User: Fold these one by one.
Assistant:
Number 1:
Amino acid sequence: MVICYSLTHLQRELSLISDNYKTGFVPTMGALHQGHISLVKRAHELSDKVIVSIFVNPTQFNNPLDLERYPRTVEEDCKRLEEAGADIVFVPTVGDIYPQKDERMFDLGGLDSVGEGPRRPGHFNGVAQVVTRLFDIVKPRYAYFGEKDFQQLSIIRYFTKELNYPVEIISCPTIREEDGLAMSSRNMLLTTEQRAVAPLIYKTLKMARERSQAQILSPDELCNWVTGEINSNSMLKTEYVEIVNSLTLRLVKNWNDHEQIQMCVAVFAGSVRLIDNIKLK
Ligand code: PAF
């Protein structure tokens, strides 16, 4: 496995890859866990060469404190990537990705009007900036993203198509701890007490899925119920609980108006913000 700490090194390595090879790309912000490793393994199945980037993208953080304390574990990450069979790891500098200030504003098709969008202004535009920049550099055939970031995945699919990138976006299922907590780099910021109560989030989502099938509660009522259940634990505080059409991400008011429905939540455990989602239909 080759580790490239600069754009020029990466470009040299990419130039050695045969044009006939299908390259698979896994963009990450590091602090890798089993969820990322599952993306790398999936990439291996479909691609001849697997490239992983590790870059904590400053433009997608609307909160400077969040950026500052985002976990950085590059050395360990590289060890795990080597074991998982990555071929190239790209660890660029901010200057490599943004030689000048990126002022681009992306059309996100209104997919950012719910969920994370209004709560993290500029976040998805920053994701679009870094992902398009990385696609321009790496020119992958396939790119892999986890379903834990359900809204991010929809938005990346949208602008990839809109901007005609010849990249196939492959989604991979959320990987969970044994107790159901969705794996996330942020989990390592949880205190022992917070970590102990965090599984309540997914437990409640699963109960919500059962309740949605009975259709006794309206979507709004079900969101209120989930909010109450999660907040009944004094260490957790929901930021939002939303039920959206899985394709348009519009809020769902009536169960029968939509064929595919997802419930998405963001929950604070202290100052650590956790997100999760579940398919209801
Ligand atoms: O999901 C992430 O880790 C990041 O948002 C991504 C896609 C690597 C862009 O920085």
Number 2:
Amino acid sequence: MEKLEQLYEGKAKKVFKTSEPGKYWIEYKDDATAFNGEKKAQIAGKGRLNNEISTIFLSLLKEKGVHNHFIKKISATEQIVQQVKIIPIEVVVRNIAAGSLAKRLGWEEGKELPQPIVEFYYKDDELGDPFINNDHIGILGLANETELVELREQALKINEILKEFVLNKGIILVDFKLEFGKTPAGDVILADEISPDTCRFWDSETKQKLDKDRFRRDLGNVEEAYQEILSRIGGSVNV
Ligand code: TMP
């Protein structure tokens, strides 16, 4: 398979066409941004770490019957994925109050939720990815009712699988963001990375943050935290 022209460059990844129809070539970058791109930096090794971490999580989900776009990892920073049409909704699942939820409701960060909360955000950089509900989604025409049920059910299933998997490695899955896409056959499948860029992970004993909040909040040791996640979930220690 050959890598062809670049289709898109996002904040943390590049997407290329390939010589095989229906397949994209993804490259994970070391770039990190926060607060809708306002804060920018390079985190040495992040591309390699997120590629490896995402590969482990997406393969696990596939094994557990959650279809997703991942096909194979082809180099330290690159993957081949199935081509889909991205649904412009960021689906966030939360098990513990943190980040924007803690702020919005005045809840203490770390408060356990009696049941997971699923939230939708409109994926639109210019608007700063605003919070939206089912009615907004319907009027904006982002997804129909059946697709919305599907998004919520898949997100909750993914949460159960990931939460249990990481808890066995001494990690609490606080919250995370997912994106889905539509295949040419019309199926809605997970089509995103799953990494410390897109999840909040806390050490279950010390509650130490092992994710991108270390960058967002200037806590230091960002790369070390990502490396720690990778080694705990069974990836090679020196990526
Ligand atoms: P939030 O608390 O800032 O709304 O973030 C919820 C989760 O979503 C957290 O795990 C980080 C992730 N996230 C992204 O992956 N991309 C984003 O642009 C934002 C704002 C959050």
